[in-house]
Write a structure and sequence with these properties.
heterotrimer; A alpha/beta (about 550); B mainly alpha (about 300); C mainly alpha (about 325); A: alpha/beta; Rossmann fold; 3 domains; 6-stranded mixed sheet; C: about 325 residues; mainly alpha; MetI-like fold
C-alpha cells in the first residue's frame, strides 16, 4: 500500500538560475510538486513561465547556461539532481522518458525509425537482434501505427507529423518507464491529430500505470487529459490542485485571469445580418501550384479550388481549417500577394483577380493584411512611425499629415503616440501586433485580413488583441477576413465562418449555424477533436 | 489586471532588446578579433602611406655593385650628385642590387590597393547583377547560368587566363582577380534578396502600395550591407594572395613594380643561398592577410551570425 | 536514382557551355589577329595563313565556334606551336605529376582535417578548439608558395631529410616518387586542411544543436555514440560540399606548388604556356580543369544520396 502510494516523481524546492543579464534571476524558483503512478500532471503557463526548463532539468538535458541552484528531484526516491552523468544515462528511457514538441525535427533524418528505437534497446538491454526487432514491432503496434514492418524501415521524412510523434512515443515507452515527460507534444500538430495523440498517451499511461508530466500552454488540452494541474508564472508555482478544482474554482488571481482568457467554443450571438454593402466577393477563386522538372512528372498542388465567399461592411468572416487546407492561400490571393490562377475577386465592384500589377496599385490601399509573426512583420531597421506612415505617404499624404494620423492610430490601438520614433525590437509581441494593426488601419482600408494574427500570442495577450480587433471593426464599420486554425478564436470573433479542407470550402454559414449544427462530416470531426470542448472556461463556481 | 501583467513583461523585454540591437556596430568595433586585425591593418596602412619617410631608398634603383647582400650588410652607394654614402641594408639586396627593405615597404602600397580595389569592384558589380537576378525573374535564369559557368573555372586559373589575354598591368591584374569573385557576390546578394522578399514585412510594404524601387532600397538592400562587408574583407584577403601568386608566377604586374609577389619571384632562383628575398615579403604578406582574415571573422561573428554557421 | 543522375548530367551541360564559350572567346578578345597569336612570334606568314584556314577564321564567328567545339569533341585540341606537339600529347605527358599531387594532397588533407574538425566541435570552446580555429585562419592567410619555401628551407636545406625539388615518375622509382611527393603534398594540403577542418567543425557544431541530438541524449546514449552515430552522418553533406568546392582551390594551388617544387605537371605547363602566349594549350588546360572540377562536384552531388535519404531530387 505504502509502496503504491510513493510518487514516481517528487520535485522539492527546485530553483534554476538564468545566466547573468537575463530579465530575471531564476528561470524556476522554489518549485515543488509530485507526480504519482498512473497520474497525469499538467504544468501550465504562458511563454517564459519556466515550464520547459523544469522538464529539461528533470531529464538532465538542461542547456549549459542554465544551472539548478537548489532543491531535489526524486525519481522513485532517488535524487537525480545529484546523480552523475552516467547514472542519468542509465535512467533515461528506462525509468524516465521524454517526448518533444516538434516531431518533425526530433527524429534523426538519416536513420530509419526502426533503428532509432533499436538503439534504445541495444543500449539498455541484453536482448539479441531478433528479440529487439520483435519488441519494436510490438510497440509500433501498441502506438497504433499501420504496417509496423514498413514503418520500421521508413525514414522520418516519409511519415506524417502525427506518425512521427507516435514513433517518439513508441521510443519513449518501449522500456516501460515509470515517468513520461511530454513537452507540448501536440502543439505542432493539427487539431484532429492532436486529439488522437492525446487519446493514445492517456491509454498507454493508464495501461502501464506510468506517471506523466505533461507540459502545455493550452487549457483545452489540460481539461482533456490532466488529473492534476500546476500553474506557473515567471518560474514560480502559482497554484496546484485537481483539474476540476483548478478549472472551476481557481483561487489565485493569475489562474483566474488565465482561464477566463480562454475563448469559449460557443459562438456569441451576433444578431441578424446587417444590410451593409458587400465589400468583398470571390467567385470560384482558385490557386494551383505546379512544379515541373526534367524527367519528373509535373506535380500539381491545388491549394484552393472554387472558393466562393462574401463579406459585408462591418462583418467578420472567419476561414477555419487545419494546416494545408488552403486558408492562407485564399487570404494571400485576396491581398494579391500571390496571383490567383482562376476565378474572380470583386472588391466592391472592381474585379482585381486578373488585374495587372501596375493597375492594381491604387486598389492595394483598400485591402490590408496583418500577419501571424509579429516579430517579422515590421522592418527592424526603421521606426514604427515610419512603418505606419509609409503606406499613406505612398498614396500622396504629406509627412506631417501622415504622422498626425499615425499618432491617432496609436491611441486607437492603445499605445503611447510618443513611442512612434522607437524601433520594432523595443516592443513586445502583443504591442507589435497592435502596431501592425495601426499600420493596416492607416491605409483606411475597406477590408482587413488577419492571417493567423493572434496564433503566436499567449492567451492573455491574445484576448486583448481580439477585443481590440472587434472594437475597431465596430467603430470603423470595417469588413474583416479572419484566418485561423483555432476554433475557439473563430467562435468568438466571427459572424460567418467558412470551413476549409484540402483547398475546398466544405461548410459555410453563420457562426452560430456552423458551430451549433455542423452538417459536413469534416466539420463535425474537427469540432469533435477540439480539446476541452465540453468545458466552459471562465464560468467559475462561487468560491 | 491583465494590462498590468503585460506592462511588466514589456518594460523588461524592452530593456533587454534595446541593448541587443542598437549596439550591433558598436559590438563589432569592440570585438577583440576586429580590434586585433584592425590594428595590424592600420600599421600596414601607415607603412604604406609613410613608405618614403621610413628610411627607404628608391625601390626600383638598380645597383650592380650591391647585388645579393645578406640582411644587415653595410653597403656604400653613390648618390645622384656623385657623393657616396653608407647604409645598412636591413633586409639585404636582390640580384639586381635593389634594396629589399625599401621594396617590401613600398610593396605594402600595391597589396593594399589591390585588396581594396578588388573588394570594392567585385562588390559593386556583384551587387548590381545580384539585385537584377533576385528581382527580374526572366533575367535570373540567364544570369545564374553564366555565373555557374564562371564559377566552374577555378578562380586562379580564370585570372591566369584573363591576364594572358590582356597586357599585364596593375589594372588588368585587378580586373582579372575581380572576375572570378563576382559570381560569389552575385549569389550572396541574390540569396539575401530572395530570402528577404519572403519576409512578412516586405509583403506588408507591398500591400501598402510601396513602389518597387522604394521596396528595394528601403526594405531589401540594407539587409545586404552586413554580409557584403564581411564578404568584402574575405575577398580583399584572397585578392592580395591572388596578386602575389600571379606576380610570383611571373604573369602578374610588371616585375619592376615593387610588389611582394614580384620580390619573391625575383628571389626564387637564388633561394637556397639567399632565402631572405622570399621570407621578408612572405612575412609581410602573411601578416597582412592574416589581419584581414581575423578582422573578417570578428565582423562575421558580430554582424552576420547566421553566416558564421556556414563556413 | 538513375533519372536523378541523368538530370544532374543534363544540368551540367549549360555550365560547360558557358565555360566553352568563354574559352573560345578568350582568343577573340586578345588584341590582334588570332591566327598570328596562335602561331606565335616566330611564325611565317604562310603558317599564319595556314592556321587561318584551318580554324576557319574567315567564317562568321558562330561557324567558327561550331568548328572549334566540333574539333574538341573529337579530341582534337589543336597544336602547340611553342612546344611543337599536339596539345593532346602535351597534356598526356604532363598529367601524371598533377594527378599524383592532387590525390596525395586530398588524402592527407581529409585524414588530418576531418578528425581535427570533429574534435574541435566536440570540445567546443576548449584549447583544442581554439588551436584548430587559429590554425585554420593561419592556413588561409599564408600563401602556398611561402609555405612551400618554408618547408623546403627546414626539411630539405637545413635538415636535408628530403630532396629540394624535382619529380620521379611513379613507375620508375616508387620511393623516389614518394620522397619527392611529401613536401609538395603537405604544402598544398595546408590550406585544404584549414578549409575542411573549419567546415567540419561548423557543420558538426550546427548538427549538435539539432533537436534529434537532444532526442538521442534523452535516449541515454553516451556522448561518443551521439557524436559518431547521429552527428557525423548528418554533418557529412556540407563537409563533402566544401571538399568539392575546394577542388578549385586545389587546382589553383597545384599551379603554384608545381612551380615551387619543379614538378613537370599541368600547372607548370599552364604557366609556361601563358609566358609563351601559347593559346591552344592555355585554352585546353582551362577547359580540362573546368571539366574535371565540374565532374568531381557532380560525383559529390550524387554521393549525397548515400548520406541523406531525403535527397532524391
Amino acid at each position: 500500500m505504502t509502496d503504491l502510494k510513493r510518487p514516481v516523481l517528487e520535485v522539492r524546492n527546485l530553483s534554476v538560475t538564468l545566466p547573468a543579464g537575463a530579465d530575471r534571476v531564476n528561470a524556476v524558483e522554489k518549485v515543488s510538486f509530485t507526480v504519482n503512478p498512473g497520474e497525469i500532471v499538467c504544468l501550465v503557463g504562458e511563454s517564459g513561465s519556466g515550464k520547459s526548463v523544469i522538464a529539461f532539468t528533470i531529464m538532465g538535458l538542461l542547456a549549459k547556461a542554465l544551472k539548478p541552484s537548489s532543491g531535489e528531484i526524486l525519481l522513485e526516491g532517488e535524487n537525480i539532481l545529484a546523480a552523475n552523468e552516467s547514472r542519468l544515462r542509465e535512467l533515461r528511457c528506462t525509468r524516465m522518458s521524454m517526448i518533444f514538441q516538434e516531431p518533425m525535427t526530433a527524429l534523426n533524418p538519416v536513420m530509419t525509425c526502426g533503428l532509432q528505437i533499436d538503439e534504445v534497446l541495444a543500449t539498455h538491454t541484453q536482448l539479441d537482434a531478433a528479440q529487439r526487432k520483435a519488441k519494436i514491432i510490438a510497440i509500433l503496434e501498441r502506438v497504433k501505427l499501420p504496417e509496423p514492418e514498413r514503418i520500421y524501415a521508413s525514414y522520418p521524412h516519409q511519415l506524417s507529423g502525427g506518425q512521427r510523434q507516435r514513433i517518439m512515443i513508441a521510443m519513449a515507452l518501449v522500456l516501460d518507464p515509470v515517468l513520461l515527460i511530454a513537452d507540448e507534444p501536440t502543439t505542432a500538430l493539427d487539431v484532429t491529430t492532436q486529439a488522437e495523440i492525446l487519446k493514445l498517451i492517456a491509454e498507454l499511461q493508464e495501461g502501464q500505470g506510468t506517471g506523466v508530466l505533461f507540459i502545455t500552454h493550452d487549457f483545452g488540452v489540460v481539461a482533456e487529459i490532466a488529473h492534476r494541474v500546476a500553474v506557473l508564472r515567471w518560474g514560480e508555482l502559482v497554484e496546484m490542485g485537481p483539474t476540476e478544482k483548478i478549472l472551476s474554482r481557481p483561487e489565485h488571481g493569475y489562474t483566474k485571469m488565465l482561464i477566463s482568457s480562454v475563448p469559449s467554443i460557443h459562438p456569441v450571438h451576433r444578431g441578424v445580418r446587417k444590410d451593409g454593402p458587400t465589400v468583398l466577393r470571390t467567385e470560384k477563386l482558385g490557386k494551383t501550384y505546379s512544379a515541373s522538372a526534367f524527367f519528373q512528372k509535373t506535380r500539381v498542388v491545388k491549394a484552393a479550388v472554387d472558393v466562393d465567399l462574401d463579406i459585408r461592411k462591418g462583418e467578420t468572416l472567419g476561414i477555419v481549417g487545419e494546416s494545408g487546407s488552403g486558408k492562407s492561400t485564399v487570404a494571400r490571393c485576396i491581398a494579391r500577394l500571390i496571383d490567383p490562377t482562376g476565378g474572380k475577386i470583386f472588391l466592391g465592384d472592381t474585379e482585381i483577380a486578373t488585374m495587372p500589377a501596375g493597375k492594381l496599385r491604387p486598389h492595394r490601399r483598400r485591402v490590408q493584411i496583418v500577419f501571424q509573426d509579429p516579430y517579422r512583420s515590421m522592418n527592424p531597421r526603421i521606426t514604427v512611425g515610419d512603418s505606419i506612415i509609409e503606406g499613406p505617404m505612398n498614396f500622396g499624404l504629406k509627412r506631417d499629415e501622415a504622422l498626425a494620423r499615425a499618432r491617432k492610430l496609436m491611441e486607437t490601438v492603445r499605445l503611447d503616440p510618443n513611442s512612434l520614433d522607437r524601433y520594432p525590437h523595443q516592443f513586445s509581441g502583443g504591442q507589435r501586433h497592435r502596431i501592425c494593426i495601426a499600420r493596416a488601419l492607416a491605409m483606411e482600408p475597406e477590408l482587413l485580413i488577419a492571417d493567423e494574427a493572434v496564433s503566436a500570442l499567449d492567451v492573455s495577450v491574445q484576448k486583448q488583441v481580439l477585443e481590440l480587433l472587434d472594437e475597431i471593426r465596430v467603430r470603423l464599420n470595417l469588413a474583416v477576413l479572419f484566418i485561423t486554425h483555432d476554433l475557439r478564436v473563430a467562435a468568438q470573433i466571427c459572424d460567418y465562418v467558412a470551413v476549409m479542407s484540402k483547398g475546398h470550402v466544405v461548410e459555410y454559414g453563420s457562426a452560430e449555424q456552423v458551430f451549433g449544427a455542423p452538417k459536413d462530416d469534416y466539420t463535425k470531426a474537427l469540432f469533435a477533436a477540439a480539446p476541452g470542448r465540453n468545458w466552459e472556461f471562465g464560468k467559475f463556481a462561487a468560491a | 489586471m491583465s494590462a498590468i501583467t503585460e506592462e511588466v513583461v514589456d518594460s523588461a523585454s524592452i530593456a533587454a532588446a534595446s541593448t541587443k540591437r542598437k549596439s550591433l556596430w558598436a559590438l563589432a568595433v569592440r570585438n577583440t578579433a576586429v580590434i586585433f586585425g584592425g590594428s595590424i591593418l592600420l600599421i600596414m596602412l601607415v607603412i604604406a602611406i609613410l613608405a618614403p619617410f621610413l628610411g627607404t631608398v628608391d625601390p626600383t634603383r638598380i645597383d650592380p655593385a650591391a647585388r645579393n647582400k645578406p640582411p644587415g650588410t653595410e653597403i656604400t652607394f653613390r648618390l645622384d650628385d656623385g657623393q657616396t654614402a653608407k647604409r645598412v641594408v636591413l633586409m639585404g639586396t636582390d640580384s639586381l642590387g635593389r634594396d629589399v627593405y625599401s621594396r617590401v615597404l613600398y610593396g605594402t602600397r600595391v597589396s593594399l590597393v589591390i585588396g581594396v580595389a578588388v573588394a570594392l569592384a567585385s562588390i559593386a558589380i556583384g551587387l548590381v547583377i545580384g539585385l537584377v537576378s533576385g528581382y527580374v525573374r526572366w533575367a535570373d535564369g540567364i544570369i545564374m547560368r553564366i555565373m555557374d559557368g564562371l564559377m566552374a573555372i577555378p578562380g586562379i586559373l580564370l585570372a591566369i587566363a584573363l591576364v594572358s589575354i590582356w597586357r599585364a598591368g596593375l589594372i588588368t591584374v585587378i580586373f582579372a582577380i575581380v572576375v572570378p569573385d563576382v559570381p560569389r557576390v552575385v549569389r550572396l546578394v541574390r540569396s539575401v534578396v530572395l530570402t528577404v522578399r519572403e519576409e512578412p514585412y516586405v509583403e506588408g510594404a507591398i500591400s501598402v502600395g510601396t513602389p518597387t524601387w522604394t521596396l528595394m532600397f528601403r526594405h531589401i538592400l540594407p539587409n545586404t550591407v552586413a554580409p557584403l562587408i564581411v564578404q568584402g574583407t574575405f575577398i580583399a584577403a584572397a585578392a592580395i594572395i591572388a596578386e602575389a601568386i600571379l606576380s610570383f608566377l611571373g604573369i602578374g604586374i610588371p616585375p619592376e613594380i615593387p610588389s611582394w609577389g614580384n620580390i619573391m619571384a625575383e628571389g626564387r632562383t637564388l633561394f637556397r643561398v639567399f632565402p631572405h628575398n622570399i621570407f621578408f615579403p612572405g612575412i609581410f604578406l602573411a601578416l597582412t592577410v592574416l589581419a584581414i582574415n581575423i578582422m573578417g571573422d570578428g565582423l562575421r561573428d558580430t554582424l552576420d551570425p547566421k553566416m558564421s554557421k556556414k563556413v | 536514382m538513375l533519372d536523378f543522375i541523368a538530370r544532374r548530367l543534363i544540368a551540367i551541360i549549360p555550365v560547360l557551355t558557358v565555360v566553352a564559350v568563354f574559352v573560345f572567346l578568350m582568343l577573340r578578345l586578345t588584341p590582334g589577329d588570332p591566327a598570328a597569336v596562335i602561331a606565335g612570334d616566330n611564325a611565317t606568314s604562310d603558317q599564319i595563313a595556314d592556321i587561318r584556314t584551318k580554324l576557319g577564321l574567315d567564317e562568321p564567328i558562330w561557324t567558327q565556334f561550331v568548328i572549334w567545339i566540333g574539333n574538341i569533341l573529337q579530341g582534337n585540341f589543336g597544336e602547340s606551336f611553342f612546344f611543337k606537339k599536339t596539345v593532346a600529347e602535351l597534356i598526356a605527358q604532363r598529367v601524371e605529376p598533377t594527378l599524383a599531387l592532387a590525390v596525395c594532397t586530398l588524402v592527407i588533407a581529409v585524414t588530418v582535417a576531418v578528425p581535427m574538425g570533429i574534435l574541435a566541435a566536440y570540445r567546443h570552446g576548449s584549447l583544442i578548439d581554439r588551436f584548430v580555429m587559429a590554425f585554420s585562419v593561419l592556413g588561409f592567410s599564408v600563401p602556398v608558395f611561402v609555405i612551400g619555401y618554408c618547408l623546403i628551407y627546414v626539411f630539405a636545406i637545413e635538415l636535408g631529410w628530403l630532396p629540394v625539388q624535382g619529380y620521379v615518375r611513379i613507375g620508375v622509382n616508387f620511393w623516389g616518387f614518394l620522397e619527392r611527393m611529401v613536401l609538395p603534398s603537405v604544402t598544398l594540403a595546408v590550406i585544404f586542411v584549414a578549409l575542411i577542418a573549419r567546415m567540419t567543425r561548423a557543420s558538426v557544431l550546427e548538427v549538435l544543436n539539432e533537436d534529434y541530438i537532444r532526442t538521442a541524449r534523452a535516449k541515454g546514449l553516451s556522448n561518443r555514440v551521439v557524436l559518431m552515430r547521429h552527428a557525423l552522418r548528418n554533418a557529412a553533406v556540407p563537409i563533402l560540399t566544401v571538399i568539392g568546392l575546394g577542388i578549385a582551390g586545389l587546382i589553383g594551388g597545384a599551379v603554384v606548388t608545381e612551380s615551387v617544387y619543379g614538378l613537370p605537371g599541368l600547372g607548370r605547363l599552364t604557366v609556361e604556356a601563358v609566358l609563351s602566349r601559347d593559346f591552344p594549350t592555355i585554352q585546353t588546360v582551362i577547359l580540362l580543369f573546368s571539366v574535371v572540377y565540374v565532374v568531381i562536384n557532380l560525383l559529390i552531388d550524387i554521393s549525397y544520396t548515400l548520406f541523406d535519404p531525403r535527397i532524391r531530387y
